[in-house]
Amino acid sequence: MSVLFGYILCLVISLAIPVTFFFGLKTIKLI
Fold first, then answer.
1. How confident is the model at residue 30, as a pLDDT?
2. What angle (nearest 5°) sits at the alpha carbon of residue 7, between those of residues 16 and 17?
3. Which tens digit of pLDDT belongs to each residue from 1-31?
4. Smallest Cα–Cα separation from 23: which of 11, 31, 10, 3?
5. Dihedral, 19, 21, 22, 24 alpha carbons, nearest 10
6. What count of Cα atoms within 13 Å lies in the side-chain half-sphere of residue 27?
7. Would you call 31 helix, strand, or coil by DSSP?
8. How far apart are CA 2 and CA 8, in angstroms?
9. What does the alpha-carbon distance between residue 9 and residue 4 come to, in Å, rounded to a whole number?
10. pTM of the entire structure?
């Protein structure tokens, strides 16, 4: 269970980083 949780956490983080970066760039362009 804990291994599965760690795997999901890694997956979420690896997806969240490019998404945050992308939205950050869009926000900078809007300003």
1. 84
2. 15
3. 799 999 999 999 999 999 999 999 999 888 7
4. 31
5. 120
6. 6
7. coil
8. 10
9. 9
10. 0.54
